[in-house]
Amino acid sequence: MMTLLTSLTLAEARDGLRAKKFSARELADAHLASMEKARGLNAYVLETPARALEMAKASDARIASGKAGPLEGIPLGIKDLFCTENIRTTACSKILGNFIPPYESTVTSQLWRDGAVLLGKLNNDEFAMGSSNETSHFGPVISPWRRKGSNAPLVPGGSSGGSASAVAAELCLGATGTDTGGSIRQPAAFTGIVGMKPTYGRCSRWGIVAFASSLDQAGPFARTVRDTAILMRSMAGHDPKDSTSADIAVPDYEKAIGKSVKGMKIGIPREYRIEGMPDEIDKPWEAGREWLKAAGAGIVDISLPHTKYALPAYYIVAPAEASSNLARYDGVRYGLREQGRDIIDMYEKTRASGFGHEVTRRVLIGTYVLSAGYYDAYYLRAQKVRTLIKKDFEDAFNQGVDAILTPATPSAAFAIGEKSSGDPTEMYLNDIFTVTVNMAGLPGIAVPAGLDHNGLPLGLQLIGKPFGEEELFSLGSVIEQAAGRFQPRDKWWAV
Amino acid sequence: MSVDDDTVRRIARLARIAVEEKEIPHWRGEINAVLKFAEQLNEVNVDGVEPMTSVTPMQLPMREDKVTDGEVPEKVLSNAPQTQDGFYLVPKVVE
Question: Do A368 and B11 touch (CB under 8 A)?
Fold first, then answer.
């Protein structure tokens, strides 16, 4: 019974709780036990069993009195970028040290409002900067997936690597993530699960540690499209505390699951067929087109001419915003302080000691491209290119395209340490298919579509119109129905 | 464009990050790799293109100018490395 409970989908668990087949306490216990066994994956940076049991107890009381919320008793993991009241939040950076937020992020407060149970805080790349979860101050996360015939530890992707690994390894029923350039969709694809980056403004950014504010967006991870839709409804919504939060009603996303996609027009952007792309990335993409066609959708070729410039523009815009956002870590109000001979020396020593390598590089680059004399050449030009990237998508949607289908990543997951040559741009290429979506503020979902020759999962990405999340859930469930679900071959991490 | 060692020192100073002298060539190399990557942007004709200021069409919402939160000094100071008498404590700034 204990292990079975962690293998349920979120929807099955919700229905089982309501039917009183098991209690929220039993469900929480089963997950806490799995987490303990799976510590080798390093997915959780903080387990909160006491809080989990207290919340589960309250859920059981509400279920008994007929007052269950939409997520009543559902155990979740929370990326350590979300501030959780009285529970350590670090962004997996040494500089936040033992930061204990005296407030709760809007997104997580909505999850608790709806009855969810907190299992713990999940590992991520430091300040969400990375594509492999190798930059965390708490060390890398290991994926539950392994290549056929190999025990080499693989990355779960990043930056929300702990979230992806925990969901795929059944250490929670769902998790939160944040996505600035692909940090939900890429790890979801690498671990064979579903992840959605909503439209910019759909989820409040209040209480989430900021990386690049014009690109950051919170979103859910789960093992099925339906589960992702269920979480999305609780996470989304208007928040006066985030001035970029959209004042648009939140639909019941679950109703989009199984809805016909007949007559929908799906664009296939030719620019995503990059030079030297392996056949095995093309194969699920081709399959995806056929599956959607079989479900009654029309497939059209489209062009997004500025695609190749999204990544270079991103690596100007994101570090620029990061250098500004991370100026607050000065050793005065929270986190680490290194002593110095004067205040400037204290700032400089604190930041040198507190920021890891990836973060330092991005802050330095961001500082440079915003500095006097270089602003126009780099930042202003990148923001103009961003306007063109967004216009590419608008042109496609104006031609009647409802959604766009692309591969989620240019490869399957790689081994830990495999991409740490001295050139940082090698790692950046992971985000080549996902970063355009952030640049244009659009919603995107990654859905598992198949396995590569090593037996590792590959994902497809669907990109929607602004606030077109429901269409993405409908289309994503068509792909899920056709492709099936994918699970790591045995629970090697649980022994 | 590429940066030299002096520029790296200047950027590090602006960013308030202490960088050891022996690390300067390393950072120069990494920064230049990213700047070289960004050079592709020079291929794009951006004449007459407006720089993006907001990714979604929205107006900055306005609200009544009144206090909505506060009177929680102990919460505000609860994570500070050093405090005294309800203030943050920093090394001496004015002699």
Answer: yes
Return the closest-CA partner of residue A156 out of A283, A38, A326. A38
What ipTM was assigned to the predicted interfaces of this complex?
0.96
For A141-187, what is each residue's pLDDT tens digit? Answer: 999 999 999 999 999 999 999 999 999 999 999 999 999 999 999 99
Report the CATH number at residue A210: 3.90.1300.10
For residue A278, tell me if it sits in a domain.
no
Order of strands across the sheet that contains A44-47: A44-47, A117-122, A75-79, A174-178, A218-222, A194-197, A444-451, A457-464, A403-407, A265-269, A298-302
Contacts of B51 in chain A (CB under 8 A): 380, 383-384, 386-387
Which member of B44, B61, B76 has the closest CB to residue A309? B44
* pLDDT on residue B60: 86
Residue A367 lies in a domain: no
Q: B46: distance to nearest CA of chain A, Å?
A: 6
For A268, the token pair is 């296939």
Q: What is the pLDDT of residue B56?
A: 85
CB of A142 within 8 A of CB of A98? no
Among candidate residues A435, A380, A181, the one with its CA nearest the CA of residue B52:
A380
What residues of chain A score a pLDDT lower than 70? 1-3, 421-422
Model pLDDT for residues A231-241, shown as the tens digit of each residue: 999 999 999 99
Q: How many domains does chain A have?
A: 1
Distance CA A426, CA A315 (A): 12
Residue A390 to residue A332: CA distance in whole angstroms: 39
The set of residues, in sequence order, having a beta carbon less than 8 Å from that of A7 and lying 6+ positions away, is A170
pTM (2 d.p.): 0.97
Full residue range of the structural domain in which residue A89 is found: 2-263+403-494
**Residue A354: inside a domain, yes or no?**
no
What would the pLDDT profile of B37-93 be if each residue is shown by its tens digit?
A: 999 999 999 999 999 988 988 888 898 999 988 999 999 999 999 999 999 999 988
- Name the DSSP class of B7: H
Annotated active-site residue A79? The verdict is yes
Candidate from B15, B33, B55 with C-beta closest to A200: B55
Q: What is the model's pLDDT at position A3?
A: 54
DSSP string, A123-151: --SGGG--SSS-S-TT-----S---TT--
